[in-house]
Specification:
Shape: globular
Largest sheet: 4 strands, antiparallel
Number of strands: 11
Amino acid sequence: MNVLWTAGTEYLVALQVSGTDAEPILKEQLKINLPTRNAHVVEPVYGNTDKLWVASGSKVYQYIKSTNQFDLSYSGNALISRVGVKSIGNQLSGAVLETVPEMAKSLAGKCTANNWCTDTVDFFSPDSSRTIIGSQVYKARILNPDYQ
């Protein structure tokens, strides 16, 4: 079954996708309350088809599809789960990347062009960061062509 996941202010929603490419049909399959408000991103947890990354305005969760639970006990959560995450993803190795605007960081960087940008992508497990001086990054994505 093809499912499109989306999230907003209060809910994580699974939409069943059917129909044709020319006339797709979306039907709400699941609607679950978010533990904290203002979700900003839903991404797959690569390597585990039962989990999704869900970043709200204040925390980053792993949503477990089979149990309909939001989990904060994943490895590295003390650093990964923070305010203002705009994108999150992981490599199959377990390394996680995320972006957070400078205005949401305790030690703001140099991207001051607006209130949504950063010039840095942060990595966890192992911990590091990559900065592109003068850039205005909002989101960064890991794309895995082998993902289901």
